[in-house]
């Protein structure tokens, strides 16, 4: 009954960041309440919706596990646990002019905004009232709780005013939850006008910065 809505919400959420997401594998796992995806690649446009002068040069994810609280979708978050993340990033000004890539990134940015405003596919809503199912899908997306484990990020910049630099960031654990305006963890319904996220429980953080001679 609700499988189509959950599949729609997770495809929308993960599809922003993951290249060639296996929707069929995702849909099959949803029925059991637990989904496991392995050996994934990050999209080059994964950061397109954040209005940052940074892009993903390359990246991969070892494993994504998803736990779906079927008995209380309206009151408990879907849990997404991400392990073994490797990311190579850099400034957009650092790469050679590539008209095709510029178009793709621009299109991804526009699509992200359209997806946020677009209602769910009617086929995903099933025979339940449309308003109810749309609200459920929005509630699921708004309250996804994400935890990251073993994250390695390398940032390379050859256009810095102080000369070429590279940064390495290693995070053992990092968690993101939905909060209210007072930054208190809470469940946000579909009618909420504002959505807040707070990152916490960051353990074993190591940052290294190197400038080229």
Automatic annotation (TrEMBL):
Tell me where on the tree of life, at the top rank, the source sits. Answer: Eukaryota
Ranges where the record places region Disordered: 93-129
What Pfam families does UniProt report for this protein, alphabetically? VPS13_N
Q: Which keywords describe this protein according to UniProt?
A: Transport
User: In the UniProt record, does the keyword RNA-binding occur?
Assistant: no
Give the UniProt record's GO annotations in the biological process aspect: protein retention in Golgi apparatus; protein targeting to vacuole
Q: Which residues form the Chorein N-terminal domain?
A: 1-197
Regions of compositional bias (Basic and acidic residues) in chain numbering: 93-105, 113-129
Q: Which family does it belong to?
A: Belongs to the VPS13 family.
Stored PANTHER family: INTERMEMBRANE LIPID TRANSFER PROTEIN VPS13, VACUOLAR PROTEIN SORTING-ASSOCIATED PROTEIN VPS13
Name of this protein? Vacuolar protein sorting-associated protein 13
This chain's source organism reads: Caerostris darwini
Q: Which gene encodes it?
A: Vps13
């Amino acid at each position: 009954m609700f499988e189509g809505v959950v599949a729609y919400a997770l495809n929308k959420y993960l599809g922003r960041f993951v290249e060639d997401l296996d929707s069929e594998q995702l849909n099959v796992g949803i029925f059991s309440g637990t989904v496991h995806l392995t050996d994934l690649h990050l999209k080059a446009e994964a950061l397109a919706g954040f209005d940052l002068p940074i892009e993903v040069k390359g990246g991969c994810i070892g494993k994504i596990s998803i736990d779906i609280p079927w008995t209380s979708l309206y009151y408990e978050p879907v849990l997404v646990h991400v392990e073994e993340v490797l990311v190579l990033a850099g400034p957009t000004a650092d790469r050679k002019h590539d008209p095709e890539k510029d178009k793709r990134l621009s299109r991804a940015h526009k699509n992200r905004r359209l997806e946020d405003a677009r209602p769910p596919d009617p086929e995903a809503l099933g025979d339940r009232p449309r308003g109810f199912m749309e609200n459920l899908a929005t509630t699921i997306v708004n309250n996804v709780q994400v935890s990251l484990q073993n994250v390695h990020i390398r940032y390379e910049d050859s256009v810095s005013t102080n000369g070429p630099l590279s940064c390495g960031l290693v995070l053992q654990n990092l968690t993101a939850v939905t909060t209210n305006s007072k930054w208190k963890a809470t469940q946000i319904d579909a009618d909420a006008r504002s959505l807040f996220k707070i990152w916490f429980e960051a353990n074993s953080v190591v940052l290294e910065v190197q400038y080229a001679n």
